[in-house]
Amino acid sequence: MGHIGRPKGKKVEELSVAPIYDWLEKQGLSSHLMSGKLKLLENLRFEEGENKCDPEYAKELAGLGEVYINEAFAAHHPAASTTILPTLLPAFAGLHFAREVEKLTKVRQAPRPGLVAIIGGVKAEDKLPAVLALSKIADYVLVGGKIVEELATRGSDANRGPVGLYPRPMSSLDAAGTRRGAPAPATPNNPSAPLSENITLASLNAEKTDITPETVEKWGPIIKKAKMIVWNGPLGKVEEPKNFRTHEIANLIISSGAESIIGGGDTISYLGKLGLLGKFGFISTGGGAMLEFLIRGTLPTIEALL
User: Fold this and answer.
1) What's the angle, vertex CA 243, arms to CA 144 and CA 208, rounded to 5?
2) Which residues neighbour 91 within 8 Å (Cβ) at sequence distance 6 or greater?
3) Domain total of the chain
4) 242 in the same domain as 118
5) pTM confidence score
6) Could you tell me which residues belong to the region Disordered (predicted)?
7) Which structural domain, as residue segments, surrounds residue 24?
8) DSSP letter (8 states) at residue 39
């Protein structure tokens, strides 16, 4: 059983598990599927009870098995199958789920000297808490993607909008990647304060679709000296071939030799198309879950297993 997409309690054909069923048959498991030894449930998000955390629906799911194993780290929001069902059966974390928690706990609680975080994406509201949390443990937090434009716009007036940041532009680094200046730091509880000196916003091209070559050049020495790199979110509109600076940053991370942890569906998809996924140390299956864990140190789905 699992989640696909966000159908909001309605059946959506393209979000069905039918292709997974077909794949299982091709693996020679038809007899197990027919006999009921192996059961594949339809996308749980088709069910209102799943999305509403209905205890009765969770009991129905509990009646289908004897042991619960959660291997879906990315599905971190409360749901009947992820936060109620584990309380009704003997429950355990799957192998990769446990590895995710182990790796991200290492980043959050015991980061190596030389930790560099790279955050990209579109919505500032989604990424800002992670940027601020990571700034407390990382030597540098390098921010790219469309969120730079949004943060810079809001930063022009501290009283405008819910974020109200004073961004640190690329001019805050010299050619060797050394920081200059020391503004009072923002925190998750006070995001309207100036950003910490170790947070640096990239420069964007004229179309605002990619970071600039100058950004790549100035980030290069920082990435080269890193011992551990955490990366979540593409740094430009990567679906357009002309925006290739994210590829350049990926190559810099790979050549640095640093321990690398990457996450986020768009990032993983892009690197997969480039054939680069195998060159990174650890791939987190959760984008939002990865950031939420780095911010809070736990998730509702983890609490349900305790």
Assistant:
1) 55
2) 67, 68, 69, 70, 85, 304, 305
3) 2
4) yes
5) 0.82
6) 162-196
7) 13-93
8) -
